Amino acid sequence: MAGGLVILWKCAEFLVAGAVGLAERLGISHLVVGLTVVAMGTSAPEVAASITAVFRETGGGDLAIGNVYGSNIANLALVGGLCALIRPIKVRRSVLRREMPVMMLVALLLRPVLSNLSLSRLEGVGLLVIFAALIWLTVQTARKEEQKNKSSEEQLGVFTVSSMKKCILFVVIGLAGLALGAKMTVEGAVFVGRQIGLSEAVIGLTIIAVGTSLPELATCLVAAIKGQDDISIGNLVGSNIFNTLLVVGAAGTIRPFEIVERLARVDYWIMISVSGVFIAIALIGKQIGRIGGVILFAGYAAYIVYLLS
Hints:
single chain, mainly alpha, A middle domain of Talin 1, two-stranded antiparallel sheet, about 80% helix, globular
């Protein structure tokens, strides 16, 4: 499992570096990069891990959905909380007005989809269609706004890759390694979790969720230290939207699955509650401050204690 997590982490870094390097050459801004390219790169482990999980004979759906719920909670509470403790994260008004409500709406969309404790291939395809339309609208809207307010001083030097060929190579290496890392992580996590008596749902919500959220953690920590607030908040919000629509949709499209009742009745609402608290904190102060960081991190610690008790 440790080897799989290392491969996931390193290959996600390659993917993010290459993808952001390509985005820079297309003139895309910090926020757009955070919401799309960086979020896509750091969500790649969740995609690979959940798709790998659904091919398991038993408990595959629990692992896949547990991974999504756990990753979404970890992104906002663990990653967001830690980053805010290091340095308060300023939130643009446009994000408060548009991207955060969208994050909540797509999360609420899973309620009717998974109310029967299963996901069909048609429902999976539907989620992917919504995802594609949403990304297209996000990019188009953000690029129009950036053309009006573009600053010549904006740079993404921390993520810069020296050449277009190197960017493409990084993306290819990242994608190839993620598949291997995901398989190793899922198999290793299931083995360890079963040895200590955890169910597939709890394994997905804890071990795999935290493991596949490490790229978000690394990226946001670097961004927080460098003062790149748009990258941090864009990555957190964008990753949750990607997880909810892309990860669930892709897993269900490839292989329909069933889940246990606790994921739909308990953990789903915990994810919604954490999302609501995160948005409320951002709305109150127009930033995720250190007090908010403490609240989020403490909430995540309490959630882990609840899962393992």
